[in-house]
């Protein structure tokens, strides 16, 4: 079979289940492409070739014996390198933790293993997940598969680039201010930040504990829904985990949006947006309306303070985690994140607590909004990918600060903890554009179904990145 690396889990799983495709054959193909594309996109930090082939053989035997575990059984994928693998190095893409080994798997790793996943390695990220470019001083920049002069987004840039290119069939990312949704939007894939507490963070190195989430980064919405079914659920080892039953998310993907009420917030989510991005998002909304959805314009006053509250919270919590290393070995951090950790020492206790008051008010306003609408729809980002190494980005002809603009629309989802999905809806030139669906707490099924409905419009026109690799 040709171009296996470009296929989604939902395309590959039936072939594996019916024994038309061997997990060993698929794993060899993914590893081959991952190695060949590594000099081009630099998405991996470490490869697990021998273990992957052994696990693929085990999956093949299980399936041959009639023990098929589900959609991800025998599927090869790599994970972001802040998720712990027992007795394996987890670097956090840093110098300080370059030799760190965990004595246990992260809960999400444990659950994926039980589902029969084949792990091909660990993927690059912005150092300690504290950035959105994935321009890493220790491991080199990850490059966007659509244009290798551009950033892949971050901090889960290795995951975004690997999935888009085909170096991993799917992946997991972590998201503190948009780090799943930013690279998903920029790399043209699907990225889901579940509700805070829906997925255990045990065994994930924290960036800012009250804002961190783990979620799927995949080629399709169905792939994301199936992965969420595996990784979701209560875990007593994570003090933020919420004890609620896990839904069957795949079964909720009907594509039916008749009478769905879409909330649109013009004052915040459609302000200072690239013209092509806005057109693509509004086109998708219009297509949903053509299928029976309705639009209601909503007001969320506290959004005007969201960027400040997100920044104070993330800076303070991240700097608390790294305080000791910042005092004793500051030179071992990359310049960009060392500056952020130093800035995080500046907010006062009053600042931090005021930010939490904004957060509480924002949650209350979103709760009220969801009494009138089913989901909110917005651009994932107000811009598309910029050049690697550039701190500014073009916004309708104006050069603006990259980091401030790129997290504007994703940060509120972390402050509120609400589920938020990025789905690709087109291009500006050859650079992908993402649309964000934000839903009520623990209603991932509803959010995913809206994304699935959008996916059926084929706004990406089946385009794939054209990676030129050395054979």
From TrEMBL:
Keyword Calcium attributed: no
Family of the protein in this entry: Belongs to the amidase family.
Record-annotated membrane-spanning stretches: none
Domain of life: Bacteria
Organism, as annotated: Ureibacillus acetophenoni
Name of the protein in question: Aspartyl/glutamyl-tRNA(Asn/Gln) amidotransferase subunit A
A GO molecular-function annotation: transferase activity
PROSITE patterns xrefs: AMIDASES (PS00571)
Domain Amidase, chain residue ranges per copy: 25-448
Keywords linked to the UniProt accession: Transferase
């Amino acid at each position: 079979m040709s171009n296996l690396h470009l296929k989604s889990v939902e395309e590959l799983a039936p072939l594996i289940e019916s024994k038309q495709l061997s997990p060993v054959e698929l794993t060899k193909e993914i590893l081959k492409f991952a190695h060949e594309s590594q000099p081009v996109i630099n998405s991996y930090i470490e490869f697990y070739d021998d273990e992957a082939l052994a696990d693929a053989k085990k999956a093949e035997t299980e399936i041959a014996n009639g023990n098929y575990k589900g959609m991800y059984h025998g599927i090869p994928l790599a994970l972001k390198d802040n998720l712990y693998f027992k007795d394996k190095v987890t670097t956090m893409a840093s110098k300080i933790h370059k030799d760190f080994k965990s004595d246990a798997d992260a809960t999400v790793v444990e659950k994926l293993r039980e589902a029969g996943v084949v792990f091909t390695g660990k993927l690059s990220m912005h150092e300690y997940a504290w950035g959105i470019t994935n321009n890493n001083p220790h491991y080199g920049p990850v490059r966007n598969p659509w244009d290798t002069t551009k950033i892949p987004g971050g901090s889960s840039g290795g995951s975004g680039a690997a999935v888009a290119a085909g170096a991993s069939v799917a992946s997991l990312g972590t998201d503190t201010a948009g780090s799943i949704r930013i690279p998903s939007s920029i790399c043209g894939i699907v990225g889901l930040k579940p509700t805070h507490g829906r997925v255990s963070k045990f065994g994930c190195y924290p960036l800012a504990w009250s804002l961190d989430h783990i979620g799927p980064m995949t080629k399709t919405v169905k792939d994301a829904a199936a992965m969420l079914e595996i990784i979701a659920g209560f875990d007593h080892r994570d003090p933020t985990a919420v004890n609620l039953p896990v839904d069957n998310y795949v079964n909720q993907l009907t594509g039916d949006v008749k009478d769905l009420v879409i909330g649109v917030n013009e004052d915040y989510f459609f302000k200072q947006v690239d013209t092509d991005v806005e057109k693509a998002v509004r086109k998708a909304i219009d297509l949903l309306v053509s299928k029976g959805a309705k639009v209601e314009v909503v007001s969320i006053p506290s959004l005007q303070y969201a960027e400040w509250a997100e920044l104070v919270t993330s800076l303070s919590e991240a700097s608390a985690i790294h305080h000791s290393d910042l005092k004793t070995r500051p030179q071992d951090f990359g310049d960009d994140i060392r500056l952020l950790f130093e800035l995080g020492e500046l907010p006062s206790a009053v600042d931090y607590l005021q930010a939490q008051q904004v957060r509480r008010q924002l949650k209350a306003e979103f709760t009220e909004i969801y009494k009138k609408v089913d989901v909110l729809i917005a651009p994932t980002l107000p811009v598309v990918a910029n050049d690697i190494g550039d701190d500014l980005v073009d916004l309708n002809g104006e050069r603006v600060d990259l980091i401030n603009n790129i997290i504007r629309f994703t940060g509120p989802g972390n402050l509120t903890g609400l589920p938020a999905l990025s789905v690709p809806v087109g291009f500006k030139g050859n650079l992908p554009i993402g649309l964000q669906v934000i839903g009520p707490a623990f209603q991932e099924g509803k959010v995913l179904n809206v994304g699935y409905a959008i996916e059926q419009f084929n706004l990406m026109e089946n385009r794939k990145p054209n990676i030129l690799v050395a054979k």
